[in-house]
């Protein structure tokens, strides 16, 4: 689907910018939307995956417009393939920009990963080696994306299951240098830290101590699956299919004590629970942030119209 088709079929208006509050948010799921809108959900913001809204109009956009009228959004990309050796897909980038123009997300983020090679598209977010060559390529891709959409993006630290012998940077130094060279911000996924630290047998707190937390603008929390590798050692999978575990909550407290309150997203993308269960997870994050979840922030945005705020 081309950007021309996307632009022609989406509504001729944009939204006013609306900042992301330093409180808990959750990923937006279609099964929850009616309940969210009917009961005025006690939620600071919603995250949406960009690729779910790259179609031309229809019910998904009607629902997203209804949500955006009342809540700020964080737009999270999973398919830009920032870490690939090839060029960014120009059609994908154009569709992504159109979503930014229309919905005016408060935060925009992508993964330090790759998922495409030539014309082949993979369903996984694949890791990159931490080398000078990789760093230069990723910086080029971030520069291209930020310049094209006209906004700063955040890059998320990955969950990893293998390491590369050729890596000559630590992950936290690589992320710091990436932000320094490109001007991007960072999205800090606490569950990813715990998953990677367990899989590679290092201290997650020491990782957090070394991470450039002053560049972090948003935090992610999620559940993980517990497996075993071929040697019988623990192997954690970033599954996003269950509650946040106690160890990750403890690391979140440790992180917030260092960063202060930040927008914090609870991700639950598989085996999606009831709205009440997901809300309970957000309440736990708000409690750590020192926020009363029953106090609902009042958005200050209003709808723009085709004659004054239409994004072109």
Rg, nearest Å: 19 Å
| Head-to-tail CA distance between termini | 18 Å
Number of domains: 1
CATH architecture: Alpha-Beta Barrel
Structural class: alpha/beta
Report on the biggest sheet. Answer: 8 strands, parallel, barrel
For this structure, the CATH topology is TIM Barrel
The rough form would be described as globular
> How many E strands?
12
Fourth-level CATH superfamily: Divalent-metal-dependent TIM barrel enzymes
Provide mean pLDDT, rounded. Answer: 87
The amount of beta strand, in percent, is 15-25%
SSE topology:
Layout: H1 3-9, E1 24-27, H2 33-38, E2 46-49, H3 59-68, E3 73-76, H4 90-103, E4 107-111, E5 114-117, E6 120-126, H5 132-149, E7 154-156, H6 171-182, E8 185-189, H7 190-200, H8 204-210, E9 216-222, E10 225-228, E11 234-237, H9 246-259, E12 264-267, H10 275-289
Parallel strand pairs: 1-2, 1-12, 2-3, 3-4, 4-7, 7-8, 8-9, 9-12
Antiparallel strand pairs: 5-6, 10-11
Short account of what is shown:
With 312 residues, the protein is an alpha/beta fold. Helices cover 37% and strands 18% of the residues. It has one domain (3-289): TIM Barrel (Alpha-Beta Barrel), CATH 3.20.20.
Molecular structure report:
The structure is a single chain. Strand 1 (24-27), helix 2 (33-38) and strand 2 (46-49) form a beta-alpha-beta unit. Helix 5 (132-149) packs across helix 6. Residues 1-5 and 298-312 have low confidence and may be disordered. This protein has one domain: Divalent-metal-dependent TIM barrel enzymes (TIM Barrel, Alpha-Beta Barrel). It starts with a helix and ends in a 23-residue tail after the last helix. An eight-stranded parallel beta barrel has the order 1-2-3-4-7-8-9-12. Strands 5-6 form a two-stranded antiparallel sheet. A two-stranded antiparallel sheet has the order 10-11. It is built from ten helices and twelve strands. It is globular, with a radius of gyration of 19 Å. The chain is an alpha/beta fold and 312 residues long. The protein has helices spanning 3-9, 33-38, 59-68, 90-103, 132-149, 171-182, 190-200, 204-210, 246-259, 275-289; strands at residues 24-27, 46-49, 73-76, 107-111, 114-117, 120-126, 154-156, 185-189, 216-222, 225-228, 234-237, 264-267.
């Amino acid at each position: 689907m081309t950007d021309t088709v996307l632009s022609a079929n989406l509504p001729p208006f944009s939204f006013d910018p609306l900042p992301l509050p330093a409180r808990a948010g959750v990923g937006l799921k279609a099964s929850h939307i009616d309940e969210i809108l009917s009961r005025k959900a006690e939620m600071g913001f919603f995250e949406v995956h960009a690729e779910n809204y790259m179609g031309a109009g229809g019910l998904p956009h009607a629902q997203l417009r209804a949500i955006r009228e009342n809540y700020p959004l964080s737009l999270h990309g999973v398919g830009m393939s920032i870490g690939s050796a090839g060029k960014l897909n120009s059609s994908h980038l154009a569709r992504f920009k159109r979503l930014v123009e229309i919905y005016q997300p408060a935060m925009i983020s992508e993964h330090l990963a790759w998922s495409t090679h030539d014309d082949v598209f993979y369903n996984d977010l694949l890791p990159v080696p931490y080398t000078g060559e990789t760093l230069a390529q990723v910086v080029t891709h971030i520069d291209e994306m930020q310049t094209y959409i006209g906004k700063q993006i955040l890059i998320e630290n990955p969950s990893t299951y293998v390491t590369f012998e050729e890596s000559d940077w630590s992950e936290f130094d690589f992320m710091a240098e990436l932000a320094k060279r490109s001007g991007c911000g960072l999205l800090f996924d606490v569950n990813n830290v715990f998953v990677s630290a367990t899989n590679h047998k290092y201290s997650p707190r020491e990782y957090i101590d070394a991470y450039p937390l002053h560049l972090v603008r948003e935090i992610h929390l999620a559940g993980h699956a517990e497996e075993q590798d071929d040697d019988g050692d623990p192997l954690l999978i970033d599954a996003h299919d269950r509650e946040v575990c106690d160890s990750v909550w403890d690391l979140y407290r440790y992180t917030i004590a260092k960063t202060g309150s930040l927008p914090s997203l609870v991700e639950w993308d598989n085996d999606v629970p009831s709205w009440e269960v997901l809300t309970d997870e957000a309440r736990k994050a708000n409690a750590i942030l020192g926020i009363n979840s029953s106090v609902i922030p009042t958005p200050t945005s209003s709808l723009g119209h085709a004659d004054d705020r239409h994004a072109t």
